Amino acid sequence: MGEGGCCPSMELFRSEPMQLVQLIIPIESAHLSISYLGELGLVQFKDLNAEKSPFQRTYATQIKRCGEMARKLRFFKEQMTKAGLTPSTRPLTRVDIDLDNLETKLGELETELIEINANSDKLQRTYSELLEYKLVLRKAGEFFYSAQSSATAQKREIDARQMGEVSIDSPLLLEQEMSIDPSKQVKLGYVSGLVPRENSMAFERILFRATRGNVFLRQAVIEEPVMDPMSGEKVEKNVFVVFYSGERAKAKILKICEAFGANRYPFTEDVGKQGQMLTEVSGKISELKTTIDVGLMHRDNLLKAISYQFEQWSLLARKEKSIYHTLNMLSFDVTKKCLVAEGWSPVFAINQIQDALKRATFDSNSQVGSIFQVLHTKESPPTYFRTNKFTSAFQEIVDAYGVAKYLEANPGVYTIITFPFLFAVMFGDWGHGICLLLATLFFIIREKKLSTQKLGDITEMTFGGRYVIMMMALFSIYTGLIYNEFFSVPFELFGRSAYACRDPSCSDSTTVGLIKVRGTYPFGVDPAWYGTRSELPFLNSLKMKMSILIGVAQMNLGIVLSYFNAKFYGSNLNIWYQFVPQIIFLNSLFGYLSLLIIVKWCTGSQADLYHVMIYMFLSPTDDLGENQLFAGQKTLQMVLLLLALVAVPWMLLPKPFLLKKQHQERHQGQSYALLQSTDDSFEVEAHHDSHGHEEFEFSEVFVHQLIHTIEFVLGAVSNTASYLRLWALSLAHSELSSVFYEKVLLLAWGFNNIIILVVGIIVFICATVGVLLVMETLSAFLHALRLHWVEFQNKFYEGDGYKFNPFSFALLSDEDD
Length: 817
Prior knowledge:
Structural class: alpha+beta
Largest sheet: 5 strands, antiparallel
Number of strands: 13
Function: Essential component of the vacuolar proton pump (V-ATPase), a multimeric enzyme that catalyzes the translocation of protons across the membranes. Required for assembly and activity of the V-ATPase.
Subcellular location: Membrane
Protein name: V-type proton ATPase subunit a
Transmembrane segments: 421-445, 466-483, 546-564, 576-599, 635-653, 754-775
Shape: extended
Strand content: 5-15%
Keywords: Hydrogen ion transport, Ion transport, Membrane, Transmembrane, Transmembrane helix, Transport
């Protein structure tokens, strides 16, 4: 950790040193102290009242009040959303309003808004009823008018028949009908209203069955949907008039209307009264419309006033709730009139915490200051890394596997370079890399605007990893230049090819006719390799060997970091009986293979490395013959094989016995241990905690070490083979890119047809974006993630810590109330 001096701090290599602190705060300054510490955001409080339920805690009432205020604010937000308003995005200013005043103000606004809504709903319901009534008056009036017209016409026809001769077609009972006493005629009743159109057929059937057909129903369709008074929604309806005879039939009809949600309205037969009622209803509708508009304007003005202050009130309510929630975690001392807090904080934050407590004491006019003291504990502290917007995404990649143990070597530092580099090895194409870079630059340039907006899940995830994608794109351009691939097309960017035809008759499809006519191509793969018969064997050999070199280098880095972990924690056993045999075993086999690859590249030898490595195990004493790359190779192989064989029992046997010996020595001298504890004794204590103070299970420790040894020996082989995915995915990406270029773009170009060319370009762009820039990017990302989590981090990284989660107002914006 670089503290001061000319060098910058190295906070990412290991987590920040933490300390357990105790704060003794007077009650009168407690609220302000916690508020200032929340603004600082560097203290993680421990819950000292874990045995109490939330309702038994000191500030349960205040939290309930804050919850009620949050409910009112949610109500305001719902009302603003319905009205099409959004909370003001003006910069937040410091408001001098306390909890009591805010609670009172929110209560008054809620009461007023509820009253306005209730009146508005009532008026709207009345307005909808009047509209329906108007429709009933019109449509039912048409029924009665047409019925009266037909009755008049029928009466005239009967009179005309009576005046003329009686024909055989005249009704036999006509004279009897006409001779009935009007006082004895049956008087029909009727019910009018509106019924939802979707229920109209069922409504008619039920009426017919309930009254056994003793009703007459007329319906008229209303062209436009009308507002239902009860639900407040637009519904398609029909106007109906039901004619009946008798009170029992009337009772049945009324019940059926209620069951079907049919709204009934009074109606009169008198045409004059109908016109009068229609005029009155139209006048009332006009008056109600004006009243409703005034009410809506008043409500909108109120909601606009709320929207200006909404964000400030919401933030204040969240802050207050979080402060009282934190105060409930503190121990309440009635006799001393103070609150006792315990929590974790970084060592560098001591002065800032003390300054915040002093400010709180001064601002609250407290007579007694707060007490700050550091506690000594054997409890494992939380892990805290100081990250910025660039490094945070890389740290999240590591934390997704497991949070680092306290002060453990952090792989996040190396991930910043190794992760995008391994991705680029699989994705190497500088054309695709430029496309990826342009896409991520859009997010980086507009990050201030986008960071304040609500994005979709996928877009938000991409935006959060914008700097990771930028590094991946830059490294892809770099490896693409090495591979000399631009959408699978090679270019002579760094000079002319070193090869040319021996004579004009040689074919471009083979390297047999090519000779080296100038110096080696200065950077990357010579473009002459592409399109030749030996392109695939050459690139396969190159990428496969390169994958092994990269894999062995990264695994060695992981083992070296295990040394620094062991040295930092003072564990000499892990250095001598874990780090040393592991580094010897890995490099005796695969380090030697890497050396052979480099020597073969440098000397241009034709040696078969498969044969060398296989017979190094099967017959180490045989002569190498034409596979010998350098003098003394046979002797070196025998020494390395012997070291690899020795490293396995070296890893397995000594450590369990030495741990048992240490345990026995430690417990023999336990009665004579010094009273004071030092940092060294703390480390020893922490180291032996995992094996228990009471008993030492030797068999358990030995089995654990056996599993660890077998896992490393087999993992050395499988992990090295796993790095061959770099070669496989690079080959797949290159071949897919080549297929899209040759079989889509060039094929379309060969038809000499503008329409086919346009279609070919569109298909090429869609295939490139969909397959190579989206699916291949995701595939290479996941494979790079696996190589870091499994092949690299399992060499040294325990990842069994827990994150530092401080009380901070800055984190409240992402939380729900």
